[in-house]
Amino acid sequence: MSARVDHDLVIVGSGFSGIGMAIAAKNRGRDFVILEKGDEVGGTWRDNRYPGCECDVPSHLYSFSFELNPYWSKAYATADEIQDYLLYCVEKYGLREHVRLGSTVARMTYDEGLAAWHLTVTDRGGDSRQLVAGAVALGVGTLHEPKIPEIPGIEQFRGELMHTAAWDEGATMVGKRVGIVGTGCSAVQAIPHLAEDARHLTVFQRTPAWVLPKVDPAYPDWLIDQYEKRPWMMKAHRTKLRAAGDLRVGGFTRAPAALKAASKAALANMHSAVKDPELRRKLTPDYTMGCKRATLSNSYYPALARDDVTVETSLIERAWPGGVTTADGTDHDLDALVFATGFDVTGSYRHLHVTGLDGRTLDDDWATDIETYFGVTAPGYPNLFFLLGPNTVLGHTSVILMIEAQIGLVTRLLDERDTRGATAVQVRPEIVPAHMQQLDARSARSVWQEGGCSSWYLDEQGRNRILWPGSVGDYERKLAKPELIDYEFTGSAS
Protein backbone atom coordinates (compact mmCIF):
# COMPACT_ATOMS: atom_id res chain seq x y z
CA MET A 1 0.00 0.00 0.00
CA SER A 2 1.32 3.42 -0.99
CA ALA A 3 2.58 5.66 1.78
CA ARG A 4 0.17 8.27 0.43
CA VAL A 5 -2.77 6.20 1.68
CA ASP A 6 -3.75 7.06 5.25
CA HIS A 7 -5.80 3.94 6.00
CA ASP A 8 -6.35 0.59 4.38
CA LEU A 9 -10.06 0.89 5.17
CA VAL A 10 -12.30 3.80 6.17
CA ILE A 11 -15.66 2.88 7.69
CA VAL A 12 -18.34 5.55 7.56
CA GLY A 13 -20.92 5.21 10.33
CA SER A 14 -20.86 3.49 13.70
CA GLY A 15 -24.15 1.64 13.94
CA PHE A 16 -24.40 -2.14 13.71
CA SER A 17 -22.91 -2.11 10.19
CA GLY A 18 -19.92 0.05 11.05
CA ILE A 19 -19.15 -1.70 14.33
CA GLY A 20 -19.49 -5.15 12.76
CA MET A 21 -17.24 -4.17 9.85
CA ALA A 22 -14.67 -2.72 12.26
CA ILE A 23 -14.55 -5.92 14.31
CA ALA A 24 -13.98 -7.94 11.13
CA ALA A 25 -11.27 -5.53 9.95
CA LYS A 26 -9.50 -5.74 13.29
CA ASN A 27 -9.65 -9.54 13.21
CA ARG A 28 -7.99 -9.44 9.78
CA GLY A 29 -5.27 -7.07 10.97
CA ARG A 30 -6.33 -4.21 8.72
CA ASP A 31 -5.49 -0.59 9.39
CA PHE A 32 -8.87 1.16 9.66
CA VAL A 33 -10.70 4.14 11.06
CA ILE A 34 -14.39 4.74 11.80
CA LEU A 35 -15.79 8.14 10.87
CA GLU A 36 -18.88 9.06 12.89
CA LYS A 37 -20.61 12.40 12.48
CA GLY A 38 -22.36 12.19 15.86
CA ASP A 39 -21.05 12.71 19.37
CA GLU A 40 -21.19 8.99 20.16
CA VAL A 41 -21.38 5.67 18.34
CA GLY A 42 -24.68 3.87 17.83
CA GLY A 43 -26.26 5.17 14.62
CA THR A 44 -30.02 4.60 14.55
CA TRP A 45 -30.15 3.65 18.22
CA ARG A 46 -28.21 6.74 19.28
CA ASP A 47 -30.38 9.08 17.23
CA ASN A 48 -33.84 7.71 17.90
CA ARG A 49 -34.74 8.72 21.45
CA TYR A 50 -38.45 9.43 21.10
CA PRO A 51 -40.80 8.19 23.85
CA GLY A 52 -41.42 4.45 23.58
CA CYS A 53 -38.62 3.77 21.10
CA GLU A 54 -37.77 0.08 20.90
CA CYS A 55 -37.06 -2.66 18.39
CA ASP A 56 -39.78 -4.65 16.62
CA VAL A 57 -37.44 -7.61 16.11
CA PRO A 58 -36.97 -10.07 19.01
CA SER A 59 -34.06 -9.08 21.24
CA HIS A 60 -32.15 -12.34 20.98
CA LEU A 61 -32.15 -12.09 17.20
CA TYR A 62 -31.09 -8.45 17.20
CA SER A 63 -27.43 -8.91 18.04
CA PHE A 64 -24.24 -10.14 16.40
CA SER A 65 -24.11 -13.93 16.10
CA PHE A 66 -20.61 -13.89 17.63
CA GLU A 67 -21.62 -11.69 20.57
CA LEU A 68 -24.90 -12.93 22.01
CA ASN A 69 -26.34 -11.03 24.94
CA PRO A 70 -27.94 -13.00 27.80
CA TYR A 71 -29.02 -9.82 29.60
CA TRP A 72 -31.89 -8.56 27.45
CA SER A 73 -34.64 -7.53 29.86
CA LYS A 74 -37.58 -8.53 27.66
CA ALA A 75 -38.61 -10.05 24.36
CA TYR A 76 -38.31 -6.74 22.47
CA ALA A 77 -35.43 -4.53 23.57
CA THR A 78 -35.70 -0.80 24.15
CA ALA A 79 -33.51 1.70 22.32
CA ASP A 80 -31.49 2.25 25.51
CA GLU A 81 -30.68 -1.45 25.82
CA ILE A 82 -29.60 -1.73 22.20
CA GLN A 83 -27.42 1.37 22.48
CA ASP A 84 -25.81 -0.09 25.62
CA TYR A 85 -25.13 -3.32 23.71
CA LEU A 86 -23.37 -1.42 20.92
CA LEU A 87 -21.28 0.55 23.40
CA TYR A 88 -20.31 -2.73 25.06
CA CYS A 89 -19.17 -4.16 21.71
CA VAL A 90 -17.06 -1.08 21.02
CA GLU A 91 -15.27 -1.45 24.35
CA LYS A 92 -14.92 -5.24 24.31
CA TYR A 93 -13.38 -5.33 20.85
CA GLY A 94 -11.12 -2.32 21.40
CA LEU A 95 -12.67 -0.09 18.76
CA ARG A 96 -12.73 3.18 20.67
CA GLU A 97 -9.23 4.17 19.56
CA HIS A 98 -10.31 3.78 15.93
CA VAL A 99 -13.41 6.00 16.22
CA ARG A 100 -13.32 9.63 15.09
CA LEU A 101 -16.44 11.32 16.47
CA GLY A 102 -17.79 14.56 15.02
CA SER A 103 -16.42 13.59 11.60
CA THR A 104 -18.79 14.12 8.67
CA VAL A 105 -17.87 12.89 5.20
CA ALA A 106 -18.65 15.79 2.85
CA ARG A 107 -17.20 14.38 -0.35
CA MET A 108 -15.61 11.19 -1.72
CA THR A 109 -13.68 10.97 -4.98
CA TYR A 110 -12.01 7.90 -6.45
CA ASP A 111 -8.41 8.23 -7.63
CA GLU A 112 -7.92 5.59 -10.32
CA GLY A 113 -4.15 6.09 -10.47
CA LEU A 114 -3.78 5.51 -6.76
CA ALA A 115 -6.69 3.03 -6.59
CA ALA A 116 -7.89 4.84 -3.49
CA TRP A 117 -10.61 7.17 -2.27
CA HIS A 118 -10.02 10.81 -1.34
CA LEU A 119 -12.40 11.83 1.44
CA THR A 120 -13.15 15.37 2.55
CA VAL A 121 -14.08 15.19 6.23
CA THR A 122 -15.50 18.11 8.21
CA ASP A 123 -15.45 18.44 11.99
CA ARG A 124 -17.99 19.99 14.37
CA GLY A 125 -16.55 23.44 13.82
CA GLY A 126 -16.83 23.21 10.05
CA ASP A 127 -13.10 22.76 9.43
CA SER A 128 -12.19 20.14 6.85
CA ARG A 129 -9.37 17.68 6.40
CA GLN A 130 -8.43 15.16 3.75
CA LEU A 131 -8.14 11.39 4.16
CA VAL A 132 -7.04 8.83 1.59
CA ALA A 133 -8.42 5.30 1.94
CA GLY A 134 -7.55 2.11 0.13
CA ALA A 135 -11.20 1.07 0.51
CA VAL A 136 -14.39 2.53 1.98
CA ALA A 137 -17.27 0.72 3.66
CA LEU A 138 -20.42 2.82 3.96
CA GLY A 139 -22.39 1.86 7.04
CA VAL A 140 -24.73 4.84 6.83
CA GLY A 141 -27.89 2.78 6.40
CA THR A 142 -31.32 3.77 5.10
CA LEU A 143 -32.97 4.85 8.38
CA HIS A 144 -30.72 7.83 8.82
CA GLU A 145 -31.81 11.03 7.08
CA PRO A 146 -35.18 12.18 8.50
CA LYS A 147 -37.82 12.99 5.91
CA ILE A 148 -39.62 16.25 6.67
CA PRO A 149 -42.89 16.84 4.79
CA GLU A 150 -43.24 20.08 2.87
CA ILE A 151 -46.01 22.03 4.58
CA PRO A 152 -46.68 25.56 3.30
CA GLY A 153 -46.14 28.10 6.06
CA ILE A 154 -44.36 25.70 8.42
CA GLU A 155 -41.64 28.30 9.00
CA GLN A 156 -44.29 30.47 10.68
CA PHE A 157 -45.21 27.86 13.28
CA ARG A 158 -44.20 29.12 16.73
CA GLY A 159 -44.55 25.87 18.64
CA GLU A 160 -42.06 23.06 19.02
CA LEU A 161 -41.14 21.18 15.84
CA MET A 162 -39.30 17.88 15.93
CA HIS A 163 -38.83 14.60 14.08
CA THR A 164 -38.90 11.33 16.00
CA ALA A 165 -35.35 10.65 14.78
CA ALA A 166 -34.10 13.95 16.21
CA TRP A 167 -35.96 14.01 19.50
CA ASP A 168 -34.94 16.58 22.07
CA GLU A 169 -34.49 14.48 25.20
CA GLY A 170 -35.19 17.53 27.32
CA ALA A 171 -38.53 18.14 25.64
CA THR A 172 -41.78 17.53 27.50
CA MET A 173 -45.28 17.29 26.07
CA VAL A 174 -47.01 17.48 29.44
CA GLY A 175 -50.10 19.67 29.27
CA LYS A 176 -49.54 20.67 25.64
CA ARG A 177 -51.69 20.43 22.53
CA VAL A 178 -49.64 18.06 20.41
CA GLY A 179 -49.95 16.98 16.79
CA ILE A 180 -48.13 13.99 15.31
CA VAL A 181 -47.87 13.35 11.57
CA GLY A 182 -47.66 9.70 10.55
CA THR A 183 -48.81 6.27 11.68
CA GLY A 184 -45.79 4.10 10.91
CA CYS A 185 -43.64 2.13 13.35
CA SER A 186 -42.21 5.14 15.19
CA ALA A 187 -45.62 6.77 15.54
CA VAL A 188 -47.23 3.56 16.81
CA GLN A 189 -44.61 3.43 19.56
CA ALA A 190 -44.68 7.14 20.43
CA ILE A 191 -48.42 7.86 20.33
CA PRO A 192 -49.37 6.02 23.56
CA HIS A 193 -46.72 7.97 25.50
CA LEU A 194 -47.67 11.30 23.94
CA ALA A 195 -51.34 10.64 24.69
CA GLU A 196 -50.50 10.11 28.36
CA ASP A 197 -48.69 13.46 28.60
CA ALA A 198 -50.53 15.80 26.25
CA ARG A 199 -53.54 17.92 27.10
CA HIS A 200 -54.80 16.85 23.68
CA LEU A 201 -53.17 14.77 20.94
CA THR A 202 -54.13 15.00 17.27
CA VAL A 203 -52.91 12.16 15.07
CA PHE A 204 -52.69 13.22 11.42
CA GLN A 205 -53.14 9.94 9.58
CA ARG A 206 -52.69 9.51 5.86
CA THR A 207 -52.85 5.72 5.84
CA PRO A 208 -53.97 3.45 8.69
CA ALA A 209 -51.50 0.86 9.96
CA TRP A 210 -51.83 -2.86 10.51
CA VAL A 211 -51.06 -3.25 14.22
CA LEU A 212 -50.67 -6.73 15.68
CA PRO A 213 -50.81 -7.56 19.38
CA LYS A 214 -47.36 -7.58 20.96
CA VAL A 215 -46.20 -10.53 23.01
CA ASP A 216 -43.45 -8.87 25.01
CA PRO A 217 -42.82 -10.67 28.31
CA ALA A 218 -40.02 -9.63 30.64
CA TYR A 219 -37.26 -12.20 30.98
CA PRO A 220 -37.14 -13.47 34.58
CA ASP A 221 -33.82 -13.40 36.41
CA TRP A 222 -33.62 -17.20 36.49
CA LEU A 223 -33.81 -17.38 32.68
CA ILE A 224 -31.19 -14.66 32.25
CA ASP A 225 -28.95 -16.64 34.60
CA GLN A 226 -29.49 -19.78 32.54
CA TYR A 227 -28.61 -17.97 29.31
CA GLU A 228 -25.46 -16.62 30.94
CA LYS A 229 -24.35 -20.00 32.32
CA ARG A 230 -25.55 -22.11 29.38
CA PRO A 231 -25.02 -20.19 26.14
CA TRP A 232 -26.26 -23.16 24.14
CA MET A 233 -29.76 -22.47 25.47
CA MET A 234 -29.56 -18.89 24.23
CA LYS A 235 -28.29 -20.07 20.83
CA ALA A 236 -31.15 -22.55 20.59
CA HIS A 237 -33.65 -19.79 21.35
CA ARG A 238 -32.06 -17.57 18.70
CA THR A 239 -32.20 -20.40 16.15
CA LYS A 240 -35.90 -20.84 16.85
CA LEU A 241 -36.55 -17.12 16.44
CA ARG A 242 -34.61 -17.04 13.19
CA ALA A 243 -36.50 -20.00 11.73
CA ALA A 244 -39.85 -18.45 12.63
CA GLY A 245 -38.86 -15.14 11.06
CA ASP A 246 -37.67 -16.61 7.77
CA LEU A 247 -40.84 -18.71 7.46
CA ARG A 248 -42.84 -15.50 7.10
CA VAL A 249 -41.07 -14.38 3.94
CA GLY A 250 -43.29 -16.53 1.74
CA GLY A 251 -46.31 -14.51 2.76
CA PHE A 252 -44.61 -11.33 1.56
CA THR A 253 -43.05 -12.56 -1.68
CA ARG A 254 -45.21 -15.39 -3.05
CA ALA A 255 -48.51 -15.90 -1.24
CA PRO A 256 -49.97 -12.78 0.38
CA ALA A 257 -53.08 -14.80 1.22
CA ALA A 258 -50.97 -16.48 3.91
CA LEU A 259 -51.15 -13.19 5.83
CA LYS A 260 -54.94 -13.44 6.29
CA ALA A 261 -54.64 -15.00 9.75
CA ALA A 262 -52.35 -12.19 10.87
CA SER A 263 -54.76 -9.64 9.40
CA LYS A 264 -57.60 -11.11 11.46
CA ALA A 265 -55.45 -10.87 14.59
CA ALA A 266 -54.72 -7.21 13.86
CA LEU A 267 -58.40 -6.40 13.33
CA ALA A 268 -59.30 -8.22 16.54
CA ASN A 269 -56.62 -6.18 18.31
CA MET A 270 -58.30 -2.99 17.09
CA HIS A 271 -61.88 -4.07 17.79
CA SER A 272 -61.08 -5.04 21.36
CA ALA A 273 -59.93 -1.48 22.14
CA VAL A 274 -61.91 0.70 19.74
CA LYS A 275 -65.71 0.66 20.17
CA ASP A 276 -66.60 3.76 18.13
CA PRO A 277 -67.67 2.60 14.61
CA GLU A 278 -66.46 5.80 12.94
CA LEU A 279 -63.01 5.52 14.54
CA ARG A 280 -62.85 1.86 13.54
CA ARG A 281 -63.58 2.87 9.96
CA LYS A 282 -60.72 5.38 10.01
CA LEU A 283 -58.30 2.82 11.45
CA THR A 284 -59.15 -0.10 9.14
CA PRO A 285 -56.54 -0.51 6.37
CA ASP A 286 -57.74 -1.02 2.79
CA TYR A 287 -54.51 -2.65 1.63
CA THR A 288 -52.98 -6.09 2.18
CA MET A 289 -50.99 -6.57 5.35
CA GLY A 290 -47.26 -6.40 4.61
CA CYS A 291 -47.59 -3.84 1.83
CA LYS A 292 -46.35 -1.43 4.49
CA ARG A 293 -44.41 -2.64 7.49
CA ALA A 294 -46.78 -4.17 10.03
CA THR A 295 -46.32 -2.94 13.59
CA LEU A 296 -46.66 -4.42 17.07
CA SER A 297 -48.43 -2.75 19.98
CA ASN A 298 -50.90 -3.42 22.78
CA SER A 299 -51.30 0.26 23.67
CA TYR A 300 -51.71 2.01 20.29
CA TYR A 301 -55.43 1.39 19.79
CA PRO A 302 -56.36 2.13 23.43
CA ALA A 303 -54.50 5.44 23.08
CA LEU A 304 -56.44 6.39 19.94
CA ALA A 305 -59.73 5.54 21.69
CA ARG A 306 -59.12 8.14 24.43
CA ASP A 307 -61.40 11.16 24.64
CA ASP A 308 -58.42 13.51 24.51
CA VAL A 309 -57.06 12.01 21.26
CA THR A 310 -58.33 12.84 17.76
CA VAL A 311 -57.53 10.91 14.61
CA GLU A 312 -57.57 13.33 11.68
CA THR A 313 -57.64 11.86 8.17
CA SER A 314 -57.86 15.15 6.27
CA LEU A 315 -54.37 16.08 5.08
CA ILE A 316 -52.52 19.11 6.45
CA GLU A 317 -52.84 21.90 3.92
CA ARG A 318 -50.87 24.69 5.61
CA ALA A 319 -49.33 25.82 8.88
CA TRP A 320 -49.69 29.11 10.74
CA PRO A 321 -48.14 30.46 13.98
CA GLY A 322 -50.55 28.68 16.31
CA GLY A 323 -51.16 25.39 14.50
CA VAL A 324 -52.13 23.82 11.19
CA THR A 325 -55.14 23.76 8.87
CA THR A 326 -56.31 20.58 7.17
CA ALA A 327 -57.78 20.26 3.69
CA ASP A 328 -61.34 20.19 5.07
CA GLY A 329 -60.81 23.72 6.41
CA THR A 330 -60.43 22.78 10.07
CA ASP A 331 -57.92 24.74 12.17
CA HIS A 332 -55.99 22.70 14.72
CA ASP A 333 -54.44 24.67 17.59
CA LEU A 334 -51.06 23.14 18.48
CA ASP A 335 -48.21 23.81 20.88
CA ALA A 336 -46.01 21.12 19.34
CA LEU A 337 -45.88 19.22 16.06
CA VAL A 338 -44.05 15.90 15.77
CA PHE A 339 -43.05 14.37 12.44
CA ALA A 340 -43.06 10.57 12.48
CA THR A 341 -42.62 10.60 8.73
CA GLY A 342 -39.77 8.19 8.14
CA PHE A 343 -36.54 8.67 6.27
CA ASP A 344 -35.06 9.73 2.97
CA VAL A 345 -33.70 6.31 2.04
CA THR A 346 -31.17 7.55 -0.55
CA GLY A 347 -30.34 10.78 1.28
CA SER A 348 -27.66 9.07 3.35
CA TYR A 349 -25.66 8.44 0.19
CA ARG A 350 -26.57 11.65 -1.63
CA HIS A 351 -25.03 13.81 1.10
CA LEU A 352 -21.70 12.03 0.68
CA HIS A 353 -21.23 13.38 -2.88
CA VAL A 354 -19.56 10.23 -4.21
CA THR A 355 -17.62 10.46 -7.48
CA GLY A 356 -16.35 7.23 -9.03
CA LEU A 357 -14.62 6.26 -12.27
CA ASP A 358 -14.63 8.69 -15.21
CA GLY A 359 -16.23 11.42 -13.12
CA ARG A 360 -19.52 9.57 -12.71
CA THR A 361 -21.41 10.33 -9.52
CA LEU A 362 -23.63 8.20 -7.35
CA ASP A 363 -26.22 11.00 -7.37
CA ASP A 364 -26.52 10.85 -11.16
CA ASP A 365 -26.28 7.08 -11.43
CA TRP A 366 -29.03 6.58 -8.86
CA ALA A 367 -31.22 9.49 -9.94
CA THR A 368 -33.53 7.32 -12.06
CA ASP A 369 -32.71 3.84 -10.81
CA ILE A 370 -30.51 2.26 -8.15
CA GLU A 371 -28.36 -0.59 -9.44
CA THR A 372 -26.13 -2.63 -7.15
CA TYR A 373 -24.96 -6.22 -6.90
CA PHE A 374 -26.57 -7.79 -3.84
CA GLY A 375 -26.70 -4.29 -2.35
CA VAL A 376 -22.95 -4.34 -1.57
CA THR A 377 -21.10 -3.19 -4.69
CA ALA A 378 -21.95 -0.89 -7.60
CA PRO A 379 -20.35 -0.75 -11.07
CA GLY A 380 -17.98 2.17 -11.55
CA TYR A 381 -17.08 2.46 -7.87
CA PRO A 382 -14.03 0.28 -7.11
CA ASN A 383 -13.07 -0.46 -3.50
CA LEU A 384 -16.41 0.93 -2.31
CA PHE A 385 -18.86 -1.22 -0.34
CA PHE A 386 -22.37 -0.60 0.94
CA LEU A 387 -23.53 -2.20 4.19
CA LEU A 388 -27.28 -2.65 4.50
CA GLY A 389 -27.49 -0.98 1.11
CA PRO A 390 -30.26 -1.06 -1.52
CA ASN A 391 -32.44 -4.18 -1.68
CA THR A 392 -31.05 -5.64 1.56
CA VAL A 393 -33.44 -4.31 4.20
CA LEU A 394 -35.90 -6.87 5.58
CA GLY A 395 -39.58 -6.74 6.42
CA HIS A 396 -39.81 -10.05 8.22
CA THR A 397 -36.77 -10.64 10.44
CA SER A 398 -33.48 -9.18 11.71
CA VAL A 399 -31.32 -7.08 9.40
CA ILE A 400 -28.30 -7.92 11.55
CA LEU A 401 -28.23 -11.27 9.73
CA MET A 402 -27.93 -9.44 6.41
CA ILE A 403 -25.23 -7.12 7.75
CA GLU A 404 -23.08 -10.05 8.86
CA ALA A 405 -23.40 -11.70 5.43
CA GLN A 406 -22.34 -8.45 3.77
CA ILE A 407 -19.37 -8.00 6.09
CA GLY A 408 -18.29 -11.51 5.19
CA LEU A 409 -18.44 -10.67 1.47
CA VAL A 410 -16.49 -7.41 1.87
CA THR A 411 -13.83 -9.22 3.89
CA ARG A 412 -13.56 -11.94 1.23
CA LEU A 413 -13.27 -9.46 -1.64
CA LEU A 414 -10.60 -7.36 0.08
CA ASP A 415 -8.63 -10.46 1.04
CA GLU A 416 -8.88 -11.75 -2.54
CA ARG A 417 -7.77 -8.39 -3.91
CA ASP A 418 -4.69 -8.44 -1.69
CA THR A 419 -3.92 -12.11 -2.36
CA ARG A 420 -3.92 -11.46 -6.09
CA GLY A 421 -1.61 -8.49 -5.67
CA ALA A 422 -4.28 -6.19 -7.12
CA THR A 423 -5.17 -2.72 -5.91
CA ALA A 424 -8.86 -2.51 -6.80
CA VAL A 425 -11.95 -4.68 -6.89
CA GLN A 426 -15.37 -3.89 -8.31
CA VAL A 427 -18.36 -5.75 -9.67
CA ARG A 428 -18.35 -6.33 -13.42
CA PRO A 429 -20.79 -3.79 -14.90
CA GLU A 430 -22.24 -6.23 -17.43
CA ILE A 431 -23.71 -8.59 -14.84
CA VAL A 432 -25.61 -6.03 -12.75
CA PRO A 433 -28.58 -5.39 -15.10
CA ALA A 434 -29.52 -9.08 -15.15
CA HIS A 435 -29.26 -9.22 -11.37
CA MET A 436 -31.58 -6.23 -11.01
CA GLN A 437 -34.04 -7.74 -13.49
CA GLN A 438 -34.14 -10.87 -11.36
CA LEU A 439 -34.86 -8.81 -8.25
CA ASP A 440 -37.60 -6.96 -10.11
CA ALA A 441 -39.17 -10.22 -11.24
CA ARG A 442 -39.17 -11.58 -7.69
CA SER A 443 -40.53 -8.32 -6.27
CA ALA A 444 -43.30 -8.11 -8.89
CA ARG A 445 -45.11 -11.01 -7.22
CA SER A 446 -44.71 -9.55 -3.74
CA VAL A 447 -47.23 -7.89 -1.44
CA TRP A 448 -45.10 -4.73 -1.56
CA GLN A 449 -46.06 -4.17 -5.19
CA GLU A 450 -49.41 -5.94 -5.37
CA GLY A 451 -50.75 -5.09 -1.93
CA GLY A 452 -52.56 -1.90 -2.90
CA CYS A 453 -50.48 0.70 -1.08
CA SER A 454 -47.67 3.14 -1.68
CA SER A 455 -44.71 2.92 0.67
CA TRP A 456 -41.11 3.94 1.17
CA TYR A 457 -40.14 0.49 -0.11
CA LEU A 458 -40.86 1.61 -3.69
CA ASP A 459 -39.21 4.25 -5.86
CA GLU A 460 -41.06 6.75 -8.05
CA GLN A 461 -41.46 4.11 -10.76
CA GLY A 462 -42.97 1.66 -8.30
CA ARG A 463 -39.89 -0.58 -8.14
CA ASN A 464 -38.71 -2.18 -4.93
CA ARG A 465 -35.28 -0.75 -4.21
CA ILE A 466 -35.25 -1.27 -0.44
CA LEU A 467 -36.16 -4.85 0.51
CA TRP A 468 -34.54 -8.19 -0.22
CA PRO A 469 -37.26 -10.24 -1.95
CA GLY A 470 -36.31 -13.56 -0.40
CA SER A 471 -35.17 -15.36 2.70
CA VAL A 472 -32.09 -14.52 4.75
CA GLY A 473 -30.79 -18.03 4.16
CA ASP A 474 -30.96 -17.52 0.40
CA TYR A 475 -29.01 -14.27 0.68
CA GLU A 476 -26.40 -15.76 3.00
CA ARG A 477 -25.76 -18.68 0.64
CA LYS A 478 -25.18 -16.35 -2.29
CA LEU A 479 -22.72 -14.17 -0.39
CA ALA A 480 -20.91 -16.91 1.54
CA LYS A 481 -19.55 -18.42 -1.69
CA PRO A 482 -19.40 -15.53 -4.15
CA GLU A 483 -18.73 -16.10 -7.82
CA LEU A 484 -15.41 -14.29 -8.01
CA ILE A 485 -15.68 -14.20 -11.80
CA ASP A 486 -18.39 -11.58 -11.19
CA TYR A 487 -15.74 -9.17 -9.94
CA GLU A 488 -12.83 -7.37 -11.59
CA PHE A 489 -9.49 -7.32 -9.76
CA THR A 490 -7.26 -4.68 -11.33
CA GLY A 491 -4.00 -2.85 -10.74
CA SER A 492 -0.76 -4.06 -9.22
CA ALA A 493 0.26 -3.50 -5.61
CA SER A 494 3.89 -3.56 -6.65
Automatic annotation (TrEMBL):
The record's annotation in Gene3D superfamilies points to: FAD/NAD(P)-binding domain (3.50.50.60)
MF terms in GO: flavin adenine dinucleotide binding; N,N-dimethylaniline monooxygenase activity; NADP binding
Give UniProt keywords alphabetically. Answer: FAD, Flavoprotein, Oxidoreductase
Q: Pfam family of this protein, just one?
A: FMO-like
- Reply yes or no: does the keyword Flavoprotein apply: yes
Similarity remark: Belongs to the FAD-binding monooxygenase family.
Q: Can you say what this protein is called?
A: Cation diffusion facilitator CzcD-associated flavoprotein CzcO
The species this protein belongs to is Flexivirga oryzae
